[in-house]
Design goal:
CATH class of the largest domain: Alpha Beta
Largest sheet: 7 strands, parallel
Helix content: 25-40%
Bound molecules: (2R)-2,3-dihydroxypropanoic acid
Shape: globular
Strand content: 5-15%
Strand order of the largest sheet: 6-5-4-7-8-9-10
Number of domains: 2
CATH superfamily of the largest domain: NAD(P)-binding Rossmann-like Domain
Radius of gyration: 21 Å
Length: about 300
């Protein structure tokens, strides 16, 4: 990077304030935020920036007012593909931990409360052979479907804006559910993989959760606001669903105490893409976009 650009790094890994981001748009040709660097519409109101490209380090870009940025002539890019498997692997981790009560078991052992093997100790449920409902069949949803179907013999249902091409749904033996509520009622595990948008905000809410069964589990590795947290807490507390595995939250890094207090949830701190391999590849993908842009080409991941 240093060979092509003069670079100023945010070395303390802390989220940048609005003032810092506003200043960086005035000072630099390119600004590369990540999910914690919030760039709302108001940030772009001034216009007349030195920056001409925002190279987001991440696939999700709900923290950037993309339309407002574009209106001021900025190009915005993201980093798809390179974190697909890392995120799908984490969704699988949550599914397995939930079903096998791994978080509960680990907490028990570390607290010195394990008294030895007995036949009914922390009995969970099988993952192999169960039905997985995927909400949002983009890259990450499809990667999870692949792992779950070929690795664990799971039956795949999915809800998406449109069905997969025929050959792809046949390969995964995946069944398209036009109605989200149908998928929720038929799945043992519901995994949320759709991006955050006005259309998907609180899509998993009191009404849709009501279709899940008391023995079914919810998993979310997409964005916190797709799930209405208050409603989820209510369903978990009343045991109207069996449990939830969450990597993302409505107001990160705040996690409601009600969730922390529940045993039937696995809570991770937004680790979806947190592997050495994925994070390095994300950085390289940001660079690919910047290099293309400053060479006068269309960046490959232009939004
Ligand atoms: C992503 O790429 O969207 C991850 O959640 C980190 O931003």
């Amino acid at each position: 990077m240093a060979s092509n650009f003069d670079v100023t790094l945010n070395t303390d890994d802390k989220a940048m304030s609005m003032e810092q981001l506003a200043q960086s748009l005035q000072e630099y040709d390119a600004v590369c935020p990540c999910v914690t660097d919030s760039m709302p519409e108001s940030l772009f109101a001034a216009g007349d920036f030195k920056a001409s490209i925002i190279g987001n380090y991440g696939v999700g870009y709900n923290h950037i007012a993309v339309d407002a940025a574009k209106e001021k002539g900025l190009v915005v890019t993201n980093t798809p593909d390179v974190l697909t498997d890392a995120t799908a692997d984490l969704a699988m981790t949550l599914m397995l931990m939930l079903a096998r009560r791994a978080g509960e078991g680990e907490r028990q052992l570390r607290a010195g409360e394990w008294t030895g093997w007995y036949p009914t100790h922390l009995m969970g449920s099988m993952v192999t052979g169960k039905t997985l409902g995927i909400v949002g069949m983009g890259r990450i949803g499809q990667a999870m479907a692949e792992k779950a179907h070929f690795g664990f013999g799971m039956k795949i249902l999915y809800h998406n804006r449109k069905p997969l091409p025929e050959n792809e749904s046949r390969r995964l033996q995946a069944e398209y559910c036009a109605e989200l509520t149908w998928l929720m009622s038929k799945s043992d595990f519901v995994a949320v993989h759709c991006p955050s948008s006005p259309l998907t905000k609180n899509m998993i809410n009191e009404k849709t959760l009501a279709y899940m069964r008391p023995e079914s589990f919810l998993i979310n590795t997409s964005r916190g606001d797709v799930v209405e947290e208050k409603a989820l807490i209510k369903f978990l507390r009343k045991k109207l669903i069996a449990g939830a595995g969450l990597d993302v939250y409505e107001n990160e890094p705040t996690v409601p105490q009600e969730l922390i207090d529940l045993d039937n949830v696995v809570l991770l701190p937004h680790l979806g893409s947190a592997t050495e391999e994925a994070r390095e590849a994300m950085g390289m993908r940001v660079l690919d976009n910047l290099n293309a842009f400053f060479n006068g080409e269309d960046p490959p991941d232009k939004l």
